[in-house]
Every structure is written in C-alpha cells, then in structure tokens.
Design a protein that fits this description.
12 helices, globular, binds the ligand Cc1ncc(C[n+]2csc(CCO)c2C)c(N)n1
C-alpha cells in the first residue's frame, strides 16, 4: 500500500462524516439554506486566496523547475478554474460574487488556513503537501459520491459544482498531488512521516469543520447574536 493510500485508509472515518454532512447532502439534494451558502462562499473565497499563498511558500521550498512549474500551474488552476463552482453557488442564491469577497474568515476557516501556513512555514515540502492534500481529495470524493448517489442532470441546481469535482479534472489534481507526496515520502524519516500524517488528519478534520462552520453560520464570539 502506498503512503497516501495508507493516509486515506486511516482517515476514512472523517471522509464518511464529510459525505454525510447536511451541507454536502444538501448539495446532492439540490437544496442548501441561502445563509449557509453565503457564509460558505465568503469564507471559501478567502480560503482560496490563502491556499494560493501556501503554493507560493511551496515554490520557495522547491528545489527544481518541475516542482516550481507544478505549483505555478496549480495556482493558475485556482485562479482560472476554481471560480466556476463558486459562480454556481452564487447563481443559486442570486448574489453577485463581488459582494462575497473581502470578508474576514470565521474561526474555523481561520484555523484551517493557519494550520496549513504553519506546516508550510515550519515543515518540509512533503509535510506541506500532507496539509494541502485533503483539500482536493475530499472534494474529488464528494463529487464522485454525489454523482453516484444523485445522478444529477443539467437541470440540477448544483450540476456544475458536482461535475466539476466529480469529473476527471479534480481527479487529476488529487492524483498528481498524491504522486508527489508518495515520491517524497519514500525518502522521509519516520518522524517526518508522522508529521505528514498529523498534518493530513488535521486538514481532514478541518475540511469537515469547514462544512459545519458554513452550515451553522459560525461567527467570532463578539459577533454572535446571543451574548448574555
Ligand atoms: C475548504 C475547501 N476545501 C477544498 C476546496 C477545493 N479546492 C480548493 S483549491 C483546490 C485545488 C487544489 O489545487 C481544490 C480542489 C475548497 N474550495 N474549499
């Protein structure tokens, strides 16, 4: 079993909880509360900005052109392609994308971004990839699960979102990142492998927590409506 196959197996409990989450199920059923959707897009726009900056840190840790080229292309993929699923969600709630940009991250998204930043700043390139990999991997499997379970057609409100992640494009993003991590892990020490596993599991937890954050419209304590 490859290193990333092992990671997937060890974290299957969290993958299953993600597939069952009401926000994810709502995407499959074609119905998500507008407030939850708005909360998600606001946080995810800023999350993607942070993700690109982490690719930038990964470039600074790269030791060859091939790695630099890989991260450069992935950054471009976020800029040019990852906006399509966001547009699909914006159309659903009838809010212009621009209105959902530039908002501060709620606590869970803030934690997730800083967790990835931490591993990128203090760890090796392999550890950085360990923290990044659950992002494409969970979404690719969500897309695949929703295609299988709901067999959406073009009239489904989230057809674009589901097919974007369930189709081959997203599968390639995950496969490429896994390949890179598997290659680097071959020459990693046991302690480095442990750091990668810990970073991977926490990112899986934070993927699940991100859906929950959006679904519950999580806010910072000072912004919560019930304070007394
Ligand atoms: C919280 C959260 N997690 C994952 C994604 C999906 N995603 C973001 S960047 C990327 C490509 C990796 O190069 C993918 C698949 C998201 N939008 N928001």
């Amino acid at each position: 079993m490859s290193f990333t196959e092992q990671l997937r197996k060890e974290n299957d409990d969290i993958f299953q909880l993600i597939f069952e989450h009401p926000f994810v199920e709502g995407i499959g059923k074609g119905s998500v509360p507008n407030e939850a959707m708005e909360h998600y897009i606001k946080a995810d726009f800023e999350y993607l900005n942070a993700f690109m900056k982490i690719y930038g840190i990964a470039i600074s840790k790269s030791s060859n052109r091939d790695d630099i080229h890989y991260f450069f292309n992935k950054m471009k993929f976020i800029l040019d392609d990852e906006i399509h699923p966001h547009h699909n969600f914006c159309a659903y709630i009838g809010v212009p994308y621009e209105a959902l940009q530039g908002h501060p991250l709620p606590p869970t998204a803030d934690h997730y971004v800083k967790h990835m930043m931490y591993h990128a700043q203090t760890g090796t390139l392999a550890e950085t990839l360990g923290a990044l990999l659950p992002c494409p991997w969970t979404y690719q499997e969500i897309g695949k699960e929703l295609m299988k379970k709901y067999e959406p057609t073009e009239s489904h409100p989230f057809y674009q979102w589901i097919t974007f992640y369930g189709d081959t494009g997203a599968r390639n993003v995950t496969a490429e990142m896994r390949e890179r991590l598997d290659t680097l892990a071959e020459s990693s020490s046991p302690i480095e492998k442990q750091h990668i596993s810990e970073a991977f599991r926490k990112s899986c937890e934070l993927e699940l927590a991100f859906w929950e954050m959006a679904y519950t419209c999580e806010e910072w304590p000072s912004k919560r409506k019930v304070m007394k």
